[in-house]
Amino acid sequence: MDISKRNFLSWMAMIAMNPSLSWASGIPNKYLILVELKGANDGINTLVPYETDNYQKLRPNLHLKKNKIIDVGNSPLVGRVGLADTMSLLDKSINQDLAIIQGVGYPGQNRSHFKSIAIWETGGDGQNSKTAGWLTNSLEKRYSNDQVVAHGASLEGSLGLFARGSGVYISMARLNQLYGHNASNSQTSMNALMKKIIKNKADLSFASQQISKKLSYFPASKLPTRMPYGNFSAQLTDVLRVIGSETAIPVMHVQHGSFDTHEGQKWQHPQLLSELTKGLASFRKNLINMGRWDDVLVMTYSEFGRRVAENGAQGTDHGAASVQFVMGGKVNAGLYGDYPSLDKLEDGDLVYTMDYRSVYEHICSSWLNQKNNEWQTFSDKRLRSLIS
Amino acid sequence: MSACNNATTFKNKKTNFENTPGNSGNNFKNNYKDNSKTNSVSLLPKSAFSTLTAAEWMATSSMPQVLNKPMSASEVSYILRKIGFEPSPSDVSKWIGKNRSILITNLIAELDTNPVNDYPKWTKLEPRYWGHNDWPSNKRNAFKSARKQEIAELRQWWIKQMLATNSPLAERLVLFWENTFVAAFSGLDEKSHAQWMHHKSIRKYAFGNYRELLHSMIKDPAILIYLDNNRNKRVSPNENLARELFELFTLGEGNYSEKDIKEAARALAGWHVSEFGKISFLEKAWARDFDKKKIFGVQKRFDGEQLIELILKHPKASEFVVNKLWTEFISLEPIPKHTLLYWSDAFRKTNYEISELLTVILNSSYFWDDKYRGTSVKAPSELLVGMVRVSQNNEIPVSVLDASLADMGQRLFDPPDVSGWGYGDYWIDAAKLIEREQFQKLLFRTLNKEFMAENSMKNIVNNRMLNKRAQKKIKLKLAGEAYQGAPPYRLSIKHSGGEWFSKINYLNSARDTERLGRYKDESQWVWETISLEVPNEVNEVEEITIRFTADAAGNGGDRNLFIGAVEWQGITLPGSMGIQNPGCRSDSGGAERHPDRLYCMGELTLHWKKIIKQFVQEQEKIKQKSEFETKELVLLWLSPPSKGGWQSIDLMFDGLSFKDRYWDYFGFKVVLDTKNSNHFHLSFDEDRCKPSCFVSWPFEAWKDKLGLRHSIVSFNKSEDWALRQYQRLKNVDKELVKSIISTMPKIRRLVANTLAHREPNSKKIWIERMNEFEKFAKMKRWKPNITYGLFERHFTNLDQTKIITDLQSMMSNKMLEDKKYIIASGKALLVDEWHEKLETYLTLASEPLESWMLSHYEGPRLTDLREVIMSPYVNIK
Hints:
The structure holds 2 protein chains of 2 kinds. Helices cover 30% and strands 16% of the residues of chain A. Chain A has helices at residues 6-17, 53-58, 91-94, 113-122, 136-142, 192-216, 231-244, 265-290, 356-367, and strands at 31-38, 47-48, 69-75, 79-84, 98-105, 152-154, 169-171, 251-257, 296-301, 322-328, 334-336, 354-355. Among the domains of chain B are: 469-617, Lipoxygenase-1, CATH 2.60.60.40; 627-788, no CATH class. Chain B is 41% helix and 16% strand. Chain B contains 33 helices and 26 strands. In chain B, a hairpin with a 2-residue loop joins strand 20 (646-658) and strand 21. Chain B is globular. At the A-B interface, helix 4, helix 6, helix 7 and helix 8 of A face helix 21, helix 23 and strand 13 of B.
């Protein structure tokens, strides 16, 4: 797994000389934002099948009351479903640009956080492990190295999503990591590795100055709406600055959590969802005001869902199928797929009704324009109208 | 083929080899021709495995050997750097002018992976990793925190080991094998002791026999857990371990088929890790697959051990190791074909002895070839350890070294995935280069005495002011996150004479969240042990409080302080035993869940006197003896009452002693068979007791396919079949059963408090059923002949929620270590001393500094160590 930054750096150098080159001409400046709900979000208390008997029965302490639910529609196997009202800030999206995909999972559920997230990042399943990031292939076909500053950037967490990609991927815990980095060596060498190091360093110093400069054209204060406080929102702020300054990084990964609510879910989970929606709602509002909402696609994902029955500690344990959100100006709002039945559980878990790779397929073909992508076999008609 | 003692044979052989350099090259080709058609591998003939010593092999081989000539300073430093860490002046000077062969012999003879520093104490104290279901959440959190702190401690222990070793080659081998047989802590469910066992095995075999190394790895609990082999069962095979075993551990991609993987997975089915007792390899017969498997074209009833033997016969097995060693120790450029063939032939013929292979490698001219100078990038651990060793300066706290290593991308015990850390470009991308340079600057400033000035001055001044009257020391183990400055803290001690306050100190090893983001997981926290001086008049301590005096946060990061432990007068208490006040407004439960984490301004108080008093009482209690005792009777699981048929309460004694018998663990079930007109009984399963539950099992006990016995003791059935099993038991076993029955009231309490169930009404239903069980238990015939009932030795009086795992081990043994560390080859030098020595060496070497410090340095002559430290040349080898 060799994540090279050489091109990123030399590109940053070019941008510095020619600031208009943010996106190579003719390339649509679109951004895919992947939101990792770290720790495994409880899909059942996110999109609630509140009419089923088993929901209340299996969750005597944790079920949400009817008046705490925003009804969003009907699902054949469970009846009415609704979002937790802690997500009410997204109410405008529900009819406009929020797609809710139900029953997402994969065969052979792995219940280890560490291993299941690797599966989501690479497009594997319980029987088949894969090693390359799920979108690296399509992404690199879509954008050549000289068309982007970087193909992907991770603002929090690892670069697992971009594993083994041969494009340009950067991890910037904070864009700050590059600030104040000065050129310090003007040496030359005959040694190939030394040449590389010296060049990387020189480029890096140069690029870091340029990145800070570029982002300084678009400080957080320039955002139309103030972003809320918090770690998740801080990442989205960085994303907004990248978009606002037209820096060509077509995929960005952000992280929110931990959703690992084995105990005390009753108060922890609403807080997590509320922070998530606050962030996303302000993010959306800003992009609409910036006139950029059509250029942005947001997708959430998480290791797995949580078990239907609560445990004895007012929490929930690791489960299987869950719910996934896709948002953006080009997204057709609505419920997609089928909510799994709460009467036919497998080991106490929801049985997935949609392979998560169907969503990958749709994104690769509709957002990245790669009709022949490696997820083709998972193509699912139910998602046909997800992105227009 | 026996070893050749006879000179003539040697000669003949030699001629043969000369005709076909690399000698088995033709074999390989033939083998692979077969492969392409039949997908089976022609395994190596027996003759490929003679047992020669390296010297014998070299005598018969045409491999070009190194000329035995005197070495220059530049050559010495190059060789030592390549197979070890950057050498210090004294490391180099002793070899200048000596013959190469003396150095080679010495490097092999000095191989030693034994620790210079004692093993961390926690490695000898294994907690109970099972039966946590009914622990309150903060106790479970504290347990996990403790395990993560142990790994953090182990990381620093390993760094110290690399700094102190007299055999850098051995430590590089340990790193090499750790990066081959990857078992990252993040994938081990917090089982720090499995990580330790893995590391210990690698130390044991690092330069020993490769066959033994493989055998130990295929049974290694950490490997089995990390690669999901615990879930590999005959009925549902899991291929993860089989795949990585072939691809990443032993053969490399393209040298096996998918079918081979499937079959190998079957061979490994049932190779699990023990659920109860200490962590160990456990072959679960019920999960094994005893049928034939066809692997590499060979059909046999393979198990894991036979699979390893088969792999060793694969022509690529030896090449795989040689290839990896080449990349690790010599160059990023591909290994020349002849070199590969010679070395892998030597490896096979020396019976896979790693040290013999190393002897051959060091003696070959390929290894000494000048053209490989500067063709490889140092991994962060090599860079960091090498630079500290070369500077002979130990002023940077080991916690800061630990943090730097992580920032450069190599957090020890935590490779990113099963393929391990990479080589070359992998280490010098933008983010990692920044951090490498950060470390160079840090060392530079330290040598310039700036580091101390910048970062620790305040602390030093504070503590020096106390020096005159202070004689006592208190130690704190702290971790933290910095945002616009390190977290400040103040210590206060309430004692018989009043209250003492320290000055405000700063935790300098806290992670800079503005630059690097927050920590992702507690196991990444870097712990620093801080020693503070306390005035003599502090006596009879009542409370120790650590106050986090100024919180800060913004959209760029967060400032936090975490308290691992406090040590005072020989006793160490974990921070998790304290009480946090006031906690964060935004997270009302946080202070209770994790009292040891100060995310907001506030304080943690350890009620020292009270805890110690309780502890003493508990210890008194422990001293009592009972004829029927356990550490704890643990309720493992309540089966759901909604499912018909056989329903049970699954229970386990954590250690059981009864009269003069002892079990590591002893399991039994309280069973209600609803299908069998409500049959109430106890059931005992042979695989749930260690050693076996009974002295002798009743003849009527049911025997499963694998010969394991299962027996029941009936309460409410009087038919012959129901009573016979109990009646057939020996008297001692009858007594045991009766004593277990006497614990019914205790079991009822466990049921009432358990969390280990899935259905909301499980508990209610089971409590009702316990009424029945208790009624039966009171019958005269079950009255045991013991004086007292079950005695549980775990701590009961102490507030359960505040106890880590085994308090006794936590309190009495675990001393916090000071931050100073040893650097190999003598005492650490101050900068001035270093320069003094350096001049001596230079005169002796009569070579310019850079030529031995950096064999490939091309720039202007360096005159100062600090310039060396800042040079980008330190990145390569």
